[in-house]
């Protein structure tokens, strides 16, 4: 039976551990987050397609990324993201194994290992001025054992070793004001030709020795009319450039060191020509010129004469020329027309010879072709094949080969400028949200796999199947709205003017659309703003206000269906867009009203409907806004005045009036940041109680403007000024009245500044790398009884605190939830392009007040590695963080964008209101069934064991031993009676004392316990057969011959540090003292202190022994005083609440005996916890335990107690009376009822309470 019980317990432990092990998330990576890597818009591309090694293309982008892409699949082999101000100027391959990049305007040259992207060397080049940078990697140039790389930048020409990055020589051109345009090396020549302009009117050619850097020869020639634009080399000895009027092409020939030029008017080449533009592709003996929205190909003759050989559309992209044979050079031209892309490869010398002509189907929303790079390869039939790398207008990257798109990359997402959220459509009737498990077999199979994974029995194939099943069951593939709000769309607008809808489930692109309206408008070249407007039916729309790079350019209004991505309508609004202001009004279709401010000081109402106009005119005089003139340091407040007047004005145009102006001193302050409270911000609790129990209210006005200014010198880059030269000032301004509500300054800071919320403002100062501070302000104190008005001056109460932060901060956001109940976290984008989630309690300015529940104040903010929500990932080039609430209060959506994209579903206070998505209900069901089965098995086993014991007890027992002492069950290990002749410590039988009304508490208490010492009569009939001797169990400690020796042995073991020694001592005392409580000798004080120490240890095992021994010792009157002096009375009072029922009954019985002494009664009365402990125990126990508690209360409130005139701190008598009356109504002994009635009568006699009125 015992084995069956053990097996059941092991099964329970195993199932509980299985549930815990199921919470591991090793195979759940990517279920609630995703990360996408990009490189950005490609500027340069160099193919590396040698037979040895992988075929790849090296690219550099506008996002300052250098990367290696696989030509087969488009995957990133490696990449490296440079700093925001480390723009890449050129890229090339040296020695067939190094990638060379020139950046930072020619001041930084790096070499990367081609296979893995590890940096081989880095060289800083001297730079004295800002100038154009050039990178040249000569193929056949060798100096001794070195292969020099030529780099120009900052007025210096450097020759750097390609092997170790050592600077071989440098040439200074700064004194002459010479601007290098081209660095050329003619074929079979050991001289380097450096071409450039001097004061934009003189052409200069330097001949430089590549070994020493010395100038061998110098030629110059003044060209009338000057130069404009870039210089384009068409051969090893000819370049072409436009003059200053951009109407004449100048051909410069520098053959054999002599300079000559030839001018050709563009009008001689093209009729009705305007300004011309030389395109960047380098063609052999030919150049491409853009004139009158056409691209013409101009061939350069031997003497510099030009002739037009072909003409194409201006939307055609042209590649650099590429040698395809020993004497043939080809180039590619690509243009996008409708839903097809046309690719042609022609010979430069013979444009009629077309080597390749392909038409490929492609999405029309990609726009026109922006750039093209070609590469050739040898086919199996020994003919030339071509592949083309194409960069589209929307920044998408494609590889075309053999008439198909081999792969494409959505690099447009590397330039996200603005993000908002939108809901998915509601689930249609009859359509399941997630059809994952279709049949019962699939359901059982899935849950069996989950069970195997929970029990760590799954094979690698099972783990993969579980991962796939979880991906499906998580709803990541379902594009419908869910009740928790986990499935949403992030609407992202890119710098290319393309709109994307990203699904939060897996990051897929639901739809994308290139905004054709701004791309077709000459005045509005690039979108710059996005605003979301929701309409319930028939669809949800996105309202876009788009404008060009110039603020005076007219804007474009576009409506897009958020479900399908189709542009419903678009129109030119006819005025500029300075600011878009959403109004707190909606029309009957629930479309929000907007005001658009233009550069002329007018505002325009949208939508332009009569209903919107009627709604707006009702609150015409209550509309206010502000404008910030950052360069002038002025903030102005405006209000509505009247309708516009004029021929071009309509009824939706209104004039404004200036209400207030705040001017910052330009010599000491410059505006660097402004922020207003988010319109959708939720504040759950507006009240706060401080340490003085004073109630404060957060100042949650939506008209509060946060302004940060710095000294003009501190407006530059970090570290550009010393801390003494810069100061940061923060203002809080009411935008209705222009009143400055608060001002705070901080010396030694220069920004940048990031702020969030209005009620709680965070300022991140990065003056130096070792001094990064965080400020926090909390605004409050509001009178609820006063009328609320925007014109009233609120009584402001501010708190502030400064912190150090170990890392520089790029951006910051704060989590937001549906109701604002969940604790908020600061999402800090660090300089390492990771996101740190910091609990907002760490930046609570009330930390200095040491309020309850607040994290103690520290001088620096902690950086906990586990708090990085990006884990080991990086969001390269991090620019912004967007948060959006889910419908589930505990959860928020976090979206970070930069060169990479990152999304995570975050629960700042854990998911306290939901189960996890992959919670196994099957495992829960199996666990419940197993528990029920184990309970049933245990019940059956227990019944069988009980039946066996009953049958065994029914057998006759000869020479049955007498019933042990204390038949109440306190002493379970009693084996002999007190009057047994075999007892080693036999005591004479005591007569029961008679009771009277004047008897003392000592007499009645002794009677209560001595009545248990009378032996029960047993059958004294002699037995014919002597009982077999019981086998003696060897005791843990030897029992001494005398009781005094036993006391000494036990005292020594109780003083030991070992818990096992203490337990052995308690077992020894139990065997000796409990069966026959001794009256002599008196217990030693050291032994009693040891027992009290064990009792205070509050351990269940030791408490059981200690209470038995203490009660047995206190039966002797001599030991009661020793127990009181050792602190036993105090120990019982203080530990009674933590003891189990049987132990607390014995402890209270001993305490009642100790109260028979004057010292014990005084000790109990003086203890402040006596009455609360006894009341709690009295309500918890029944029977004798309740009787003992009432007796101790009688000692406290009896004669010599609370009613004797002595000032004793006790609980109110009324409360004690109610507790005693309630206890008497339950199960209680007869003696307890008598004592309780006597206590109530005592309280009533002294006039301390009226029991009739209290209902007792």
From TrEMBL:
Region called Disordered, residue ranges: 979-1038
Coiled-coil intervals: none
Residue span(s) of domain ER membrane protein complex subunit 1 C-terminal: 752-948
Residues making up the signal peptide according to the UniProt record: 1-18
Family matches, as InterPro entries: ARM_PUB, Beta-prop_EMC1_1st, EMC1, EMC1_C, Quinoprotein_ADH-like_sf, WD40/YVTN_repeat-like_dom_sf
Subcellular location: Endoplasmic reticulum membrane
Membrane topology type: Single-pass type I membrane protein
Domain EMC1 first beta-propeller, first and last residues per copy: 24-411
Annotated transmembrane regions: 919-941
One Pfam family recorded for the sequence: ARM_PUB
Domain of life: Eukaryota
Keywords, ordered alphabetically: Endoplasmic reticulum, Glycoprotein, Membrane, Signal, Transmembrane, Transmembrane helix
Biased composition (Low complexity): 994-1008
SUPFAM superfamilies linked to this entry: Quinoprotein alcohol dehydrogenase-like
Main location: endoplasmic reticulum
Biased composition, class Pro residues, residue ranges: 1024-1038
Family, per entry: Belongs to the EMC1 family.
The protein's name in its UniProt record: ER membrane protein complex subunit 1
Organism: Brassica napus
Taxonomic classification: Eukaryota, Viridiplantae, Streptophyta, Embryophyta, Tracheophyta
């Amino acid at each position: 039976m015992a084995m069956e019980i053990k097996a059941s317990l092991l099964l329970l432990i195993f199932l509980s551990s299985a549930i815990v092990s199921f919470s591991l998330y090793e195979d759940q990576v990517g279920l609630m987050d995703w990360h996408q890597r990009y490189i950005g818009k490609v500027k340069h591309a160099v193919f590396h397609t040698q037979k040895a090694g992988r075929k790849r293309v090296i690219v550099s982008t506008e996002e300052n990324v250098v990367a290696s892409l696989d030509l087969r699949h488009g995957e990133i082999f490696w990449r490296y993201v440079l700093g925001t101000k480390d723009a890449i100027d050129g890229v090339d391959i040296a020695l067939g194994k190094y990638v060379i990049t020139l950046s930072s305007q020619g001041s930084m040259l790096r070499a990367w290992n081609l296979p893995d992207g590890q940096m081989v060397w880095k060289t800083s080049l001297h730079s004295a001025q800002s100038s154009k940078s050039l990178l040249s990697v000569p193929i056949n140039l060798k100096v001794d054992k070195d292969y020099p790389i030529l780099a120009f930048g900052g007025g210096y020409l450097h020759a750097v070793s390609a092997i170790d990055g050592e600077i071989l020589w440098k040439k200074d051109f700064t004194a002459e004001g010479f601007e290098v345009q081209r660095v050329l090396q003619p074929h079979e020549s050991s001289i380097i030709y450096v071409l450039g302009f001097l004061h934009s009117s003189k052409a200069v050619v330097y001949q430089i020795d590549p070994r020493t850097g010395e100038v061998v020869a110098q030629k110059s020639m003044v060209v009338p009319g000057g130069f404009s634009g870039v210089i384009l080399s068409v051969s090893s000895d000819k370049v072409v450039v436009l003059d200053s009027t951009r109407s004449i092409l100048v051909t410069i020939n520098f053959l054999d060191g002599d300079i000559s030029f030839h001018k050709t008017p563009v009008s001689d080449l093209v009729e009705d020509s305007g300004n011309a533009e030389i395109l960047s592709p380098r063609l052999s003996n030919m150049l491409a010129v853009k004139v009158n929205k056409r691209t013409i190909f101009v061939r350069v003759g031997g003497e510099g004469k030009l002739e037009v050989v072909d003409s194409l559309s201006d939307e055609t992209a042209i590649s650099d020329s590429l040698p395809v044979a020993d004497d043939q050079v080809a180039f590619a031209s690509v243009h996008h027309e409708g839903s097809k892309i046309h690719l042609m490869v022609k010979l430069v010398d013979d444009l009629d010879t077309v080597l390749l002509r392909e038409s490929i189907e492609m999405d029309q929303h990609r726009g026109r072709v922006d750039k093209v790079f070609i590469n050739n390869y040898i086919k199996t039939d020994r003919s030339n094949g071509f592949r083309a790398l194409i960069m589209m207008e929307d920044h998408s990257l494609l590889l075309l080969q053999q008439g198909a798109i081999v792969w494409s990359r959505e690099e447009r997402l590397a330039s996200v400028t603005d993000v908002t959220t939108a809901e998915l459509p509601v689930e249609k009737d009859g359509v399941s949200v997630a059809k994952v498990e279709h049949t019962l077999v699939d359901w059982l199979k899935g849950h069996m796999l989950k069970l195997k994974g929970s029990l760590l029995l799954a094979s690698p194939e099972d783990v993969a199947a579980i991962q796939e099943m979880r991906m499906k069951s998580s709803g990541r593939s379902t594009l419908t709205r869910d009740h928790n709000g986990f499935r949403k769309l992030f609407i992202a607008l890119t710098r290319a003017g393309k709109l994307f809808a990203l699904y939060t489930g897996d990051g897929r692109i639901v739809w994308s659309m290139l905004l054709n309206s701004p791309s077709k408008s000459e005045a509005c070249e690039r979108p710059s703003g996005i605003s979301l407007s929701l309409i319930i039916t028939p669809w949800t729309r996105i309202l876009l206000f788009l404008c060009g790079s110039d603020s005076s350019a007219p804007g474009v209004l576009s409506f897009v269906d958020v479900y399908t991505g189709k542009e419903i309508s678009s129109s030119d609004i006819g005025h500029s867009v300075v600011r878009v202001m959403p109004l707190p009004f909606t029309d009957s279709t629930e479309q929000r009203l907007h005001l658009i401010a233009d550069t002329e000081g007018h505002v325009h109402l949208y939508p332009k409907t009569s209903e919107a106009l009627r709604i707006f005119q009702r609150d015409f005089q209550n509309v206010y806004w502000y404008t910030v003139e950052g360069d002038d340091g002025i903030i102005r407040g405006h209000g509505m005045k009247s309708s516009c007047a004029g021929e071009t004005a309509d009824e939706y145009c209104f004039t404004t009036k200036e209400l207030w102006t705040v001017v910052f001193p330009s010599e000491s302050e410059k505006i660097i940041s402004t922020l207003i409270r988010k319109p959708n911000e939720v504040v759950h609790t507006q009240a706060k109680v401080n340490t003085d129990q004073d109630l404060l209210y957060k100042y949650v006005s939506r008209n509060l403007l946060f302004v940060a200014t710095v000294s003009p010198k501190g407006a530059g880059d970090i570290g550009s000024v010393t801390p003494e030269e810069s100061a940061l000032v923060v203002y809080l301004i009411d935008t209705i009245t222009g009143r400055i509500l608060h001002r705070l300054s901080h010396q030694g800071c220069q920004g940048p500044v990031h702020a969030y919320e209005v009620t709680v403002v965070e300022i991140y100062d990065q003056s130096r790398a070792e001094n990064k501070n965080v400020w926090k302000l909390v605004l409050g104190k509001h009178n609820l009884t006063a009328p609320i008005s925007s014109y009233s001056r609120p009584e402001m109460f501010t708190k502030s605190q400064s912190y150090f932060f170990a890392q520089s901060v790029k951006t910051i956001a704060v989590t937001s939830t549906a109701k604002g109940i969940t604790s908020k976290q600061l999402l800090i984008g660090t300089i390492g392009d990771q996101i740190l989630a910091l609990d907002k309690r760490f930046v609570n300015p009330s930390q200095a007040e040491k309020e309850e529940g607040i994290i103690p104040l520290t001088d620096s903010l902690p950086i906990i590695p586990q708090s990085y929500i990006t884990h080991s990932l990086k969001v390269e080039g991090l620019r912004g963080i967007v948060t959006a609430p889910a419908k589930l209060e505990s959860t928020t959506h976090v979206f970070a964008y930069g060169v990479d994209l990152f999304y995570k579903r975050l629960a700042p206070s854990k998911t306290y209101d939901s189960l996890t998505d992959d919670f196994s209900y099957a495992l829960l069901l199996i666990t419940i069934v197993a528990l029920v089965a184990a309970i049933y098995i245990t019940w059956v086993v227990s019944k069988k064991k009980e039946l066996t014991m009953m049958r065994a007890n029914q057998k006759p027992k000869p020479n049955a031993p007498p019933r042990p002492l204390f038949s109440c069950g306190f002493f379970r290990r009693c084996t002999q009676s007190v009057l047994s002749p075999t007892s080693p410590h036999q005591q004479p039988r005591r007569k029961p004392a008679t009771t009277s009304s004047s008897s003392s508490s000592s007499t009645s208490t002794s009677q209560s316990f001595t009545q248990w010492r009378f032996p029960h009569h047993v059958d004294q009939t002699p037995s014919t057969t002597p009982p077999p001797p019981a086998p003696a169990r060897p005791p843990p400690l030897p029992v001494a011959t005398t009781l005094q020796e036993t006391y000494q042995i036990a005292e020594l073991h109780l003083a030991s540090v070992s818990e096992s020694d203490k337990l052995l001592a308690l077992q020894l005392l139990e065997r000796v003292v409990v069966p026959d409580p001794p009256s002599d000798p008196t217990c030693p004080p050291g032994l009693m202190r040891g027992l009290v120490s064990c009792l205070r240890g509050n351990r269940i095992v030791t408490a059981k022994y200690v209470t038995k021994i203490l009660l047995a010792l206190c039966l002797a009157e001599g030991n009661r005083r020793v127990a009181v002096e050792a602190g036993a009375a105090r120990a019982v009072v203080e530990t009674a609440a933590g003891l189990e029922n049987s132990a607390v009954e014995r402890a209270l019985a001993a305490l009642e005996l100790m109260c028979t002494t004057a010292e014990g009664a005084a000790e109990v009365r003086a203890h402040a916890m006596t009455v609360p402990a006894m009341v709690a125990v009295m309500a918890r126990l029944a029977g004798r335990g309740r009787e003992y508690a009432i007796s101790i209360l009688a000692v406290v409130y009896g004669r010599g107690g609370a009613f004797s005139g002595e000032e004793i701190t006790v609980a109110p008598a009324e409360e004690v009376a109610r507790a005693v009356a309630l206890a008497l109504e339950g199960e209680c002994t007869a003696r307890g009822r008598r004592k309780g009635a006597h206590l109530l009568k005592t309280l009533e006699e002294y006039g301390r309470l009226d029991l009739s009125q209290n209902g007792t």
